[in-house]
């Protein structure tokens, strides 16, 4: 039996993002974001319950300050005591996992969505994703960008404004564009 476009997307294979099922999932995510982002003045408990409605998993004590944007939401898995400051974006066409105690500054962008390198494949409208894994107790400074397929080890520090194009070892500090060890 052939895979659906959603199954292909979740498996990290080339898929068509215009598929009706995926468009319906994105519409549901957009409706949820309208509600979540309007909840800035609500209590942390109310916002936490909203997070649990849409995200794949949400650990205890996790906080995301609105506004927050994502593609689907259900591919995002957050450990305990994860903190996102204002205006973060996660393109979650495949899993994005963030470990316990990780702190993420304002305007950080995490991209699991990717595009073919071949111009012909891009013209066809196909896309794919590569999972992003961020370990425990990581600090990501404001405005950083994490690219598809990157793994960041426990206790790492990503400097503000850095563009992380490669895996970052545990306990390492990286800065710049592209991000490199200090």
TrEMBL record:
SMART domains: Mac. GO terms for molecular function: acetyltransferase activity; O-acyltransferase activity. Keywords: Acyltransferase, Nodulation, Repeat, Transferase. It comes from the Bacteria. InterPro entries: Hexapep, Hexapep_transf_CS, Hexapeptide_acetyltransf, Mac_dom, Trimer_LpxA-like_sf. GO terms for cellular component: cytosol. The keyword Thylakoid does not apply. Residues 6-60 form the Maltose/galactoside acetyltransferase domain. Acetyltransferase implicated in the O-acetylation of Nod factors. Belongs to the transferase hexapeptide repeat family. This is Nodulation protein L.
């Amino acid at each position: 039996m052939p895979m659906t476009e959603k199954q292909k997307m979740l498996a990290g294979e080339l898929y068509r993002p215009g598929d009706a099922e995926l468009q319906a999932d994105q519409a549901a995510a957009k409706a949820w974001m309208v509600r979540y982002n309007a909840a800035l003045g609500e209590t942390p408990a109310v916002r936490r319950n909203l997070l649990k409605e849409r995200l794949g998993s949400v650990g205890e004590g996790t906080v995301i300050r609105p506004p927050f944007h994502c593609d689907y939401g259900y591919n995002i898995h957050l450990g305990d005591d994860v903190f996102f400051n204002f205006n973060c974006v996660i393109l979650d066409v495949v899993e994005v996992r963030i470990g316990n105690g990780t702190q993420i500054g304002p305007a950080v962008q995490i991209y699991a969505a990717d595009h073919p390198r071949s111009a012909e494949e891009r013209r066809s409208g196909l896309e794919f994703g590569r999972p992003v894994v961020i370990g425990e107790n990581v600090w990501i400074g404001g405005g950083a960008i994490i690219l598809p397929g990157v793994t960041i080890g426990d206790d790492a520090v990503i400097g503000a404004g850095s563009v992380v194009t490669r895996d970052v070892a545990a306990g390492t500090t990286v800065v710049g564009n592209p991000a490199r060890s200090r």
